[in-house]
C-alpha cells in the first residue's frame, strides 16, 4: 500500500495563501527549495486539485528555461515534468506533462491509488487534501511553517468530522526562522 503525504509551506497562523491567493510571503530559501525538490524526487505520483495544478502548470513546464533559473529550479522543473501526476477537477478538460485527469469521485480514486503497489504519493491543494483528510486517507503531514501571520486566506487544514491523532517524526529549522515538522497519522 502506498503512503499519501500532504505537505506545503504555510504561515504560522495556518494558511497556505493569504487573501487574494497571495503567496509572496512563502518564497522558500535555497535549502527549503532543495528539501521540496528532494521530496519530489522520492515521490512516485503527485495528486493535484485544479487550483494548485493551474499554478504549477503555468510555470514548471518551462521553469528550467527561465533566464534566472537556479540549478535547483532547473532540476525541479525537469523532475516535475517527468513525474506522473493526477489532477482532480470537474471544471477543466485537458491536462499535459505526464498527467491524467480525474473528474469523478476523488475519495474512490485516491483509495484505489493508495491500494496499488508503488512508492509514496503527494497530494497538493487545500480543497483536494481536505477531502482526503476527512476520508482518513493522509498518512503523513509535512508543514513548512514560516514566521509570518497573514490573518486569513486558504487554510492548510480543513474542518474535520473527527480528531486525527499524529506522531511527530521530524523537526528541522531552515533559514529565516522557518520550522519544518513532519507528522505521521497514528492508526
UniProtKB/TrEMBL annotation:
Domain Bacterial bifunctional deaminase-reductase C-terminal as annotated: residue spans: 2-179
Pfam families: RibD_C
Gene3D superfamilies: Dihydrofolate Reductase, subunit A
Protein name: Dihydrofolate reductase family protein
Amino acid at each position: 500500500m502506498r503512503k499519501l503525504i500532504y505537505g506545503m509551506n504555510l504561515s504560522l497562523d495556518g494558511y497556505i495563501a493569504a487573501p487574494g491567493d497571495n503567496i509572496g510571503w512563502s518564497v522558500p530559501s535555497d535549502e527549503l527549495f532543495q528539501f521540496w525538490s528532494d521530496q519530489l524526487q522520492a515521490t512516485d505520483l503527485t495528486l493535484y486539485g485544479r487550483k494548485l495544478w493551474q499554478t504549477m502548470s503555468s510555470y514548471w513546464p518551462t521553469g528550467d528555461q527561465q533566464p534566472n533559473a537556479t540549478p535547483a529550479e532547473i532540476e525541479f522543473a525537469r523532475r516535475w515534468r517527468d513525474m506522473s501526476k493526477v489532477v482532480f477537477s470537474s471544471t477543466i478538460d485537458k491536462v499535459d506533462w505526464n498527467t491524467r485527469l480525474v473528474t469523478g469521485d476523488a475519495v474512490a480514486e485516491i483509495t484505489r491509488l493508495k491500494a496499488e503497489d508503488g512508492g509514496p504519493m503527494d497530494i497538493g491543494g487545500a480543497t483536494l487534501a481536505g477531502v482526503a483528510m476527512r476520508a482518513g486517507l493522509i498518512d503523513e503531514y509535512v508543514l513548512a511553517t514560516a514566521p509570518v501571520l497573514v490573518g486569513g486566506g486558504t487554510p492548510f487544514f480543513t474542518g474535520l468530522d473527527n480528531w486525527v491523532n499524529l506522531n511527530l517524526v521530524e523537526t528541522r529549522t531552515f533559514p529565516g526562522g522557518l520550522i519544518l515538522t513532519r507528522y505521521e497519522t497514528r492508526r
